[in-house]
């Protein structure tokens, strides 16, 4: 596994209910990111389908299975380029419908994450709740965890993946107007408190009466931005990350006098109310 990896976040404008056009756009952005050396490229939530559907039936009509032609095309790109993609889409599984993120690499689809926390917004009003646990995938470009948009405001999601050894947390997202405080604060806080790298890819443009704000970013384990786009325009963010920083959980500022370990210093016996009292 590499120590230094180049990651990218794609801030794009998916077209509503236009899978073929969105696939072409994703492949175009992926080509550009690859030219800039990116080994892991993260796309927005529902990048292949759009987000602001008004019924389950409307969304189901464009949702795809993980072996659909569009996904197979992404697999071929990853195989040819020896790169990794995280792509948001609507996934159809029998009569089930999920807001999903796919992790694809040179060997094809490696992981599927289905959004666990669902706001009353867009297609999330109609999809089924995610039925798979948060998971970390060991890849040639690091240990990768995925969650989607609203998941990020629940600190348990990032923490459980950090405890499982995640080095990079990927967040395909659709932050609309009103979510700017989340975009400005949450990714960096999750990176800081878990000592991981955090790659958030948001969309831009308008859909279903909503404007999307951008604010895609790459944050490091110190809670600092390595790259960020503050304006709602299509763009590509690229940064080199050193995974040894994500593996170094204990930080020694002054030996014996100023040391912190945000994983090792936890006291889980005092957190039981999270699981019991408030469930």
Description:
The protein has helices at 19-35, 56-60, 69-81, 155-163, 180-194, 243-247, 272-275; strands at residues 4-11, 40-42, 84-93, 96-105, 108-114, 136-139, 142-146, 168-173, 197-202, 204-207, 210-213, 217-219, 225-228, 235-242, 250-254, 258-261. The chain is globular, with a radius of gyration of 18 Å. The chain is an alpha/beta fold. The protein has one domain (4-249): Carbon-nitrogen hydrolase (Nitrilase/N-carbamoyl-D-aminoacid amidohydrolase, 4-Layer Sandwich). The N and C termini lie far apart (39 Å). A hairpin with a 5-residue loop joins strand 12 (217-219) and strand 13. Helix 1 runs parallel beside helix 3. Helix content is 24%, strand content 33%. The chain contains 7 helices and 16 strands.
